[in-house]
């Protein structure tokens, strides 16, 4: 029997209020900062006349979308999947096969990726329900390698390593800016949706699963349902990114499902800041153009990024965006002592 | 059928060398080392370059390969693995994520570094004996190199196993694997134990890479498939169980050969993943593993 049985004394209520207010404030700050970046992203391609760099920026936003999708699973829910690139590839093939064999218009193909990849993601989530930590990572590696091999070796249907060429969204002569602003709008929609999700009750459920799954289950959170939901949502966002990407580059290839690509997507989220709304976007906007830039000097970009990823997770877990967010959070509060709910990565 | 068994067992020896190291690491730190295949790659590169470029006798070149692997293991332990067990109370919730990101990132780093330094070309090492030579084993004709390499590998594996089973420091490794806190009370230096474990596992993987490099040439991605196979073996045999990982390795080697011959040669590398997913679903503790109860 605890001596202090009165759970709600005045100090505790004050603490609870400060914590929940801190979390609330941090979320809105996160959204505001993210929109700051999005405004920057809106004017960026207008200042860059080069078609090549406009294309680079478009791909950047594709990666940002995929990384945001992974962040729901890895950053917010703590389910460390290594399969984001696989869902990107699955999205690419869903749309490509529908357009190629059924003659669907690209827009319908892109929309069709949402149900298809969310069902596949749900199945993977159900498979992984009982697994955590290293077991979960291993299973997702196995899943991604099986999927990639299936696509590579069913060459009668998918043309294997040759890749499947498909029409692009606005035609070959389409203005690059159209492509850019389409994926830009998709990014805004997804970021708003993620914000709504994470500031709702479900967001609390997901974070509680990350912080302590057993305790969350003990407090009545339906961990089975919400873990599966996290897998479903995350993979459908990655799939959507893939569906758009295939109609930008015009080629679906199993190269996209390499673990290397998964590492690229994850390193964006880690370097930007896991478990924040804008971290993946910031990471993608830093890393992808940089990767294009160092490529001309004959440097393997993943050498740099994987090294950075190791350094960040070892010494600087908040990430670049996460650190900026923390500093601003401290600016806004005068007391500076209210702990925020996302404090696990501080 | 005999042929399938013998070739399967030969591959099984190399899987066992990788899986033993992985299983040791899992035993003491409870994490999976995703960069394990890159120890293999380091061994393969060292051996292939020494024998091809510098013309070192192939039996002698195995030793520097092993040393490189041991060095790589020690460096990785010192720089990246320490936070996993020092100050580990602060890490309670984040350590799994840390381990996965760090080892996965390390794997990508080493693969791309090799790609940057040596280029995407294949360098195949010289055989222990000229690669054309054949010999008869139990009515099956096999390449002499494979037989010699697997005998050498199996004896090194046996030596490592006995080392862990019977020497003082080997027993310390077992003690830390059973209960880190209890071992610390008994005066066992867990830092040194973890250095030993990483040294042994790096060395074993590098020797496997060196001995296989005439067959699977050294290239940046050389370690990817062997590593993934050894993950499967470790899960199949039971995480952290040493006899389990050796049994699992031979089982997987033979199973793969059966699958390649009777089912489909194209999908021979996919069977391993199927085995992994089925094991995790049906018997998550593996063949010999104990069920871990979590609080």
Characterise this structure.
The complex is a heterodimer of chains A (346) and B (295). Chain A is 75% helix and 1% strand. Chain A has helices at residues 10-47, 51-76, 84-102, 106-127, 133-153, 155-158, 176-199, 201-211, 213-218, 223-249, 259-272, 279-295, 301-315, 319-332; strands at 164-165, 251-252. By secondary structure, chain A is mainly alpha-helical. The longest helix of chain A has 38 residues, at 10-47. In chain A, strands 1-2 form a two-stranded antiparallel ribbon. Chain A has one domain (16-345): Orthogonal Bundle (ABC transporter involved in vitamin B12 uptake, BtuC). In chain B, helix 1 packs across helix 9, helix 3 runs antiparallel to helix 8 and helix 9 packs across helix 10 (242-262). The model of chain B has no long low-confidence stretch (mean pLDDT 83). In chain B, 70% of the residues lie in helices and 3% in strands. Chain B is an all-alpha fold. Chain B starts with a helix and ends in a 13-residue tail after the last helix. The radius of gyration of chain B is 19 Å and the shape is globular. Chain B has helices spanning 2-29, 36-52, 58-85, 95-118, 144-166, 168-178, 180-185, 190-212, 224-237, 242-262, 271-282; strands at 134-137, 140-143. Chain B has a two-stranded antiparallel ribbon. In chain B, a hairpin with a 2-residue loop joins strand 1 and strand 2. Chain B has one domain (2-223).
């Amino acid at each position: 029997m605890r001596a202090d049985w009165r759970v709600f004394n005045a100090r505790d209520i004050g603490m609870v209020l400060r914590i929940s207010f801190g979390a609330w404030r941090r979320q809105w700050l996160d959204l505001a900062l993210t929109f700051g970046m999005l405004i920057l992203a809106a004017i960026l391609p207008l200042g860059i006349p080069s078609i090549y760099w406009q294309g680079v920026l478009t791909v950047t936003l594709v990666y940002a979308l995929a990384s945001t999708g992974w962040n729901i699973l890895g950053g917010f829910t703590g389910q460390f999947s290594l399969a984001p690139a696989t869902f990107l590839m699955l999205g690419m093939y869903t749309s490509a096969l529908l357009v190629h064999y059924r003659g669907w218009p690209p827009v319908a193909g892109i929309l069709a990726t949402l149900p298809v990849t969310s069902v596949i993601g749900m199945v993977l989530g159900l498979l992984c329900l009982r697994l955590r930590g290293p077991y979960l990572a291993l299973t997702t590696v196995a899943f991604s390698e099986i999927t990639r091999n299936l696509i590579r070796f069913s060459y009668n249907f998918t043309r294997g390593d040759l890749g499947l060429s498909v029409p692009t969204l606005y035609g070959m002569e389409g203005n690059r800016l159209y492509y850019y602003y389409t994926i830009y709008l998709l990014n805004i929609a997804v970021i708003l949706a993620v914000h709504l999700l994470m500031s709702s009750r479900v967001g609390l459920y997901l974070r509680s699963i990350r912080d302590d799954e057993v305790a969350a289950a003990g407090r009545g959170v339906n961990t089975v349902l919400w873990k599966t939901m996290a897998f479903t949502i995350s993979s459908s966002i990655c799939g959507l990114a893939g569906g758009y990407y295939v109609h930008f580059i015009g080629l679906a290839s199993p190269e996209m499902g390499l673990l290397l690509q998964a590492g690229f997507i994850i390193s964006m989220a880690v370097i930007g800041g896991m478990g924040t709304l804008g971290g993946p976007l910031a990471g993608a906007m830093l890393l992808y153009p940089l990767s294009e830039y160092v490529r001309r000097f004959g440097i393997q970009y993943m050498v740099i990024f994987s090294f950075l990823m190791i350094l960040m997770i070892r010494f600087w877990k908040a990430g670049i965006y996460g650190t900026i967010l923390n500093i601003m959070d401290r600016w806004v509060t005068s007391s500076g002592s209210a702990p925020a709910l996302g404090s696990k990565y501080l | 059928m005999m042929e399938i068994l013998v070739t399967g067992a030969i591959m099984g020896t190399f899987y066992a060398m990788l899986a033993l190291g992985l299983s040791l690491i899992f035993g003491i730190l409870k994490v999976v080392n995703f960069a394990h295949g890159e120890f293999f790659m380091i061994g393969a590169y060292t051996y292939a370059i020494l024998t091809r470029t510098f013309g070192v006798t192939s039996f002698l070149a195995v030793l520097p390969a092993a040393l490189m692997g041991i060095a790589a293991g020690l460096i990785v332990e010192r720089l990246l693995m320490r936070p996993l067990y020092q100050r580990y109370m602060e890490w309670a919730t984040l350590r799994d994520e840390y381990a996965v990101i760090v080892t996965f990132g390390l794997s990508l780093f080493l693969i791309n570094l090799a790609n940057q330094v040596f280029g995407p070309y294949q360098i195949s090492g010289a055989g222990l004996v000229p690669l054309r030579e054949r010999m008869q084993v139990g009515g099956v004709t096999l390449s002499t190199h494979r037989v010699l390499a697997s005998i050498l590998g199996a004896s090194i594996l046996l030596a490592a196993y006995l080392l862990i089973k019977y020497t003082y420091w080997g027993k310390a490794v077992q003690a830390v694997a059973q209960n880190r806190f209890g071992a610390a009370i008994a005066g066992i230096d867990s830092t040194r134990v973890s250095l030993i474990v990483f040294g042994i596992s790096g060395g074993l993987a590098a020797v496997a890479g060196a001995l296989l490099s005439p067959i699977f040439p050294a290239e940046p991605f050389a370690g990817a498939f062997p590593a993934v196979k050894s993950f499967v073996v470790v899960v199949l045999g039971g995480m952290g169980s040493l006899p389990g990982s050796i049994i699992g390795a031979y089982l997987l080697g033979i199973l793969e050969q059966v699958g390649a011959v009777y089912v489909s040669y194209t999908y021979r590398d996919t069977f391993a993943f199927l085995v992994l997913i089925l094991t995790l679903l049906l018997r998550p503790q593996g063949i010999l593993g104990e069920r871990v109860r979590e609080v």
